[in-house]
Write a structure and sequence with these properties.
The complex is a heterodimer of chains A (300) and B (408).
Chain A lengths: L1 H15 L5 H9 L1 H26 L3 H6 L15 H8 L2 H32 L5 H10 L5 H15 L5 H25 L3 H9 L4 H12 L1 H17 L2 H6 L7 H6 L9 H22 L14
Helix pairs in contact in A: 3-15, 5-15, 6-9, 6-12, 7-9, 9-12, 10-11, 12-15
Chain B lengths: L3 E9 L5 E10 L4 E5 L6 H9 L6 E6 L2 E2 L10 E4 L11 H11 L4 H14 L15 H13 L5 E5 L7 H18 L2 E6 L2 H7 L2 E6 L2 E6 L1 H6 L4 H6 L6 E9 L5 E5 L2 E5 L1 H6 L10 E6 L4 E3 L12 E13 L3 E8 L7 H9 L13 E8 L9 E7 L4 E3 L16
Parallel strand pairs in B: 3-8, 3-9, 6-7, 7-8
Antiparallel strand pairs in B: 1-2, 1-4, 4-5, 9-10, 11-12, 11-14, 12-13, 14-20, 15-19, 16-17, 16-19, 17-18
Helix pairs in contact in B: 2-3, 2-4
The chains are: A mainly alpha (300), B alpha+beta (408).
C-alpha cells in the first residue's frame, strides 16, 4: 500500500515537472536571493550611462576634461552646480519651454482626437467605416522622411514654417494613425452590453464616451500618452526641419552645442540630463494607470 | 407603467436572415410576459427591438400607446437587465444605481432616496460603496436589477438575467423576481431559453421558433393545450412522448388509438373537447403523452381499474431517481417520430441527451411515483391517463381540435 502510494507520487512529480518553466526551476535551485542580486546587477549596468551623465553634469569643467567621471566618487570636491547655472545663462531655458510648448499640445491633441476617432470607429455605424479605418491603419507605414519636403512647402505657403504650431501639427498628424489604431482596438474590446446599458440609462454618444468608455480606457490612454510624449520630447528630426532658432526645442539646442573637435560637455551634460528627467517623472506619475483588470466585475 | 404592443414586427438582418417574422404580441399593462424558445428563435432580437437597441425592419412597436419605432432607447422610458449584468466597473454600486437618474437630471435628494430604497429592497445596503469587481455573481445580478428598478420605468426588459447564476441561486432569484414583480407591478418582458423559468415566472408565455410566434398563453394552457408539436415538445421536462398512431373505432363502439401492439381507448369526452378529431378516425396521426400522465400500476393503487386509465406493459431501460419521482425510460416498438417540429424542439432542449441506442424504436419517458421502486431491466405495468392524450396532425404538426388551429 505504502509502496504504491510512493510510486504514484513520484510519477506525478516527474509528470508535473516539465510543465514548469526553466526559470522557475532555476529559482528553486539557486534561491530567490541570487536572482534578485543578478537583476540588480543588470539594472545597475543599464543605469550606468545615466549615472555617468548625472555626475558629469555636476563636475567642474576642468575635471571633466582631465579625468573620468568615476573619480568623483573618491574626490567629492569635484562636484559643483556651476554647470547648471551656466546652462541657464546660455538661454537654454527658452528651448526647454519650447519643448514643453511642443510636447504638451502634441500629446493632448493626439489623445483627444484619437479617442474620439477610436470611439467612432469602434462603436458608431457609418457608411464606409471599415474602409476609412483601413486607410488610417495603412497610414502607419508612411515614413516621416518622405513627407518632410512636401510639408515644408505646404507650411511655407501657410506661413507656419518654423513656428511651434507647425511642429505640433506635424507631430499630431504622424502620431494619429497609431493612436487611433491603438485606441480603436482597445475600445472595441469593451463589452458591447456596457454601452447598451448606458444607452438604456439615457446616455447619448457623448455621455457614453465621457462617462463609460473614457474612464475604462485609462490604461490604454495612459500608455499612449506616455509613448506619444516620449516620441515628441525626444524628436530631433522634425525639430531640425521645421523649427527655427527662436522656436527650437531642447534636442535641437543640445545638438547645436556639438562641436566637431571636442565637446563642451559642461553644457551638454546638464542639458541632456534635464531633458531626460522630465519624461522619467511623468512616467512614474502615470504608472498607477498601467493597472490590469480595469474591466473586472463589469460582465459575468 | 404601460402596455407594449408589437404589430407585424419584422427583423431582417443584412444578408436576408429573417430573425423575427411578422410578430404580433400584446403585452398588457403590468403583465409578466416571458419570451421563450430555442437559441436563434428571435426572442432576444424581439426584446432588443422593444428596447431600441435594434432597428425595426417592418411593423410597429408601441409602448403605452406611443409608437416608438424611431425613438432612441433613452426616450422610450424602459429599463433593461442584461444577461451579463453590464455593470459599470469603474463606478461603485451606488454610482451604478444612480447613473441613469443623474443622466436624467433628477434632483440629488430624490436620487439618494430611490437608490436607498432599491438597495434596501434588494439587500444591497452594505455594498453601496463597493465596486462590482468586489461583488459575488448574485450580488452583481441584484445591482443590475436595482439599476432598472430605481428608474421606475414604464417597463422592464430582461434578457436571460439569471442564466449566469449557479442553479441554486437561480431558483432563489426566480422567487425574488416573482415577489418583485408582485410588489412593483411593472410590465415586464423576460427572455429565456429555459422553459422551467418561463413556466414559473410568466403570467403568460410566448413561444417563438425561427422568428415565428408559435403560441402565447398562460403556462398551464401551454402545458395542457400546446398548439402544435413544437410547443408540445419544447414545454415540459422531460418532454412529451410522441408516436405515430392510428385512430380507430373499436368493436364496442368506442374509439382507440393504436401503435406498436398497444391500443389505448380514447374517451368520448375527448371527441367533444377536440373538435375535428372524429375526422381522423381510420387515419394516422401523431399521439403525444406527457411523462407525468403515466403512473406505475403497482404503486398507484387508487387509479388502477378506474375508467380512463389504460395499461401499457413496459421494460424499464433506464431509471432516473429524483427523490420524489422516478423517470422511467422504456422502449416502444415503433419508429421515433421524425417530424420537423419534434426534431426542432428536441435540439432546443439542452438538458435532453439523445440516446442513440434505441435503434428504430422510440425511447419514451414516464414519470412515476417514487414508491414504485422500479429498477432498470425490470418489467413494469404503466397506466396512462387517457383523458390527457394529445393528438397532432402527422403532416402539419398542428394540435387537432385546438381552438387556435380551427380553419388552418
Amino acid at each position: 500500500m505504502m509502496a504504491t502510494a510512493t510510486v504514484e507520487r513520484t510519477v506525478a512529480n516527474s509528470a508535473g515537472a516539465p510543465k514548469r518553466g526553466v526559470l522557475g526551476r532555476v529559482i528553486d535551485r539557486l534561491g530567490g536571493g541570487f536572482l534578485q542580486a543578478l537583476l540588480i546587477v543588470v539594472a545597475l549596468f543599464w543605469l550606468m550611462p545615466t549615472l555617468g551623465l548625472l555626475i558629469v553634469s555636476i563636475r567642474g569643467e576642468t575635471f571633466n576634461n582631465s579625468s573620468g567621471w568615476w573619480t568623483a566618487f573618491t574626490q567629492p570636491a569635484q562636484l559643483t552646480l556651476a554647470n547648471y547655472s551656466d546652462l541657464l545663462a546660455t538661454g537654454f531655458t527658452s528651448s526647454f519651454w519650447n519643448t514643453i510648448a511642443i510636447t504638451v499640445p502634441a500629446t493632448l491633441l493626439v489623445i483627444g482626437i484619437a479617442a474620439m476617432a477610436g470611439y467612432a470607429f469602434a462603436w458608431i455605424e457609418f457608411p464606409g467605416r471599415d474602409a476609412v479605418f483601413l486607410v488610417v491603419v495603412a497610414l502607419l507605414v508612411v515614413p516621416i522622411q518622405i513627407a518632410l519636403i512636401p510639408i515644408a512647402k505646404l507650411y511655407g505657403s501657410l506661413n507656419i514654417f518654423g513656428s511651434i504650431p507647425g511642429v505640433v501639427l506635424f507631430h499630431v498628424a504622424f502620431g494619429l494613425p497609431f493612436a487611433i489604431f491603438l485606441l480603436r482596438n482597445f475600445f472595441a474590446g469593451i463589452p458591447k452590453e456596457l454601452l447598451e446599458a448606458a444607452r438604456m440609462d439615457g446616455a447619448g454618444e457623448w455621455k457614453i464616451f465621457a462617462t463609460v468608455v473614457f474612464p475604462l480606457a485609462k490604461p490604454a490612454i495612459a500608455s499612449l500618452g506616455i509613448f506619444q510624449f516620449l516620441w515628441v520630447w525626444n524628436d530631433l528630426l522634425v525639430a531640425l526641419v521645421f523649427a527655427d532658432t527662436d522656436n527650437q526645442p531642447m534636442t535641437k539646442a543640445l545638438q547645436s552645442q556639438m562641436r566637431q573637435f571636442g565637446t563642451n560637455v559642461d553644457i551638454l551634460a546638464p542639458g541632456a540630463f534635464l531633458s531626460l528627467i522630465i519624461p522619467l517623472v511623468l512616467f512614474f506619475a502615470f504608472q498607477r494607470y498601467f493597472v490590469q483588470g480595469m474591466m473586472a466585475g463589469s460582465v459575468k | 407603467m404601460a402596455s407594449i404592443v408589437l404589430s407585424n414586427v419584422d427583423k431582417i438582418y443584412a444578408g436576408g436572415v429573417k430573425a423575427v417574422n411578422d410578430l404580433n404580441l400584446e403585452i398588457k399593462d403590468g403583465e409578466f410576459m416571458v419570451l421563450v424558445g430555442p437559441s436563434g428563435c428571435g426572442k432576444s432580437t424581439a426584446l432588443r427591438m422593444i428596447a431600441g437597441l435594434e432597428d425595426i425592419s417592418g411593423g410597429e412597436i408601441a409602448i403605452g400607446e406611443k409608437v416608438v419605432n424611431h425613438l432612441p432607447p433613452k426616450d422610450r422610458d424602459i429599463a433593461m437587465v442584461f444577461q451579463n449584468y453590464a455593470l459599470y466597473p469603474h463606478m461603485t454600486v451606488e454610482e451604478n444605481l444612480a447613473f441613469g437618474l443623474k443622466l436624467r437630471k433628477m434632483p440629488k435628494p430624490e436620487i439618494q432616496k430611490r437608490v436607498n430604497e432599491a438597495a434596501k429592497m434588494l439587500g444591497l445596503d452594505q455594498y453601496l460603496k463597493r465596486k462590482p469587481a468586489a461583488l459575488s455573481g448574485g450580488q452583481r445580478q441584484r445591482v443590475a436589477m436595482g439599476r432598472a428598478i430605481v428608474r421606475e420605468p414604464q417597463a422592464f426588459l430582461m434578457d436571460e438575467p439569471l442564466s449566469n447564476l449557479d442553479a441554486k441561486l437561480r431558483v432563489s432569484m426566480r422567487a425574488s423576481l416573482n415577489t418583485l414583480h408582485e410588489r412593483l407591478g411593472v410590465t415586464t418582458v423576460y427572455v429565456t431559453h429555459d422553459q422551467v423559468e418561463a413556466m414559473t415566472l410568466g403570467d403568460r408565455v410566448c413561444v417563438l421558433r425561427d422568428g415565428l410566434l408559435q403560441q402565447v398563453d398562460t403556462p398551464q394552457n401551454l402545458f395542457d393545450k400546446p398548439v402544435n408539436l413544437f410547443v408540445a415538445g419544447f414545454m415540459g421536462s422531460p418532454s412529451m412522448n410522441f408516436v405515430t398512431a392510428d385512430l380507430v373505432r373499436t368493436d364496442g363502439g368506442g374509439a382507440a388509438v393504436t401503435f406498436a401492439d398497444i391500443s389505448l381507448p380514447v374517451p368520448e369526452s375527448t371527441f367533444t373537447e377536440k373538435a375535428g378529431l372524429d375526422a381522423y378516425i381510420g387515419k394516422q396521426l401523431i399521439l403525444g403523452i406527457r411523462p407525468s400522465d403515466f403512473e406505475d400500476a403497482a404503486a398507484a393503487n387508487g387509479h388502477s381499474g378506474t375508467t380512463g386509465w389504460a395499461r401499457i406493459p413496459a421494460r424499464a431501460e433506464v431509471t432516473e431517481e429524483l427523490g420524489s419521482e422516478i423517470n422511467v425510460l422504456f422502449l416502444i416498438d415503433a419508429p421515433p417520430v421524425e417530424h420537423k417540429d419534434t426534431v426542432a424542439a428536441k435540439d432546443a432542449d439542452e438538458d435532453e441527451e439523445t440516446i442513440p441506442l434505441a435503434g428504430d424504436k422510440s425511447l419514451w419517458t414516464s414519470r412515476v411515483n417514487a414508491r414504485s421502486h422500479v429498477r432498470p431491466g425490470q418489467n413494469i405495468e404503466l397506466i396512462v391517463d387517457t383523458h390527457n392524450l394529445h393528438f397532432f396532425d402527422s403532416v402539419s404538426g398542428l394540435a387537432i381540435g385546438h381552438p387556435a388551429n380551427a380553419g388552418r
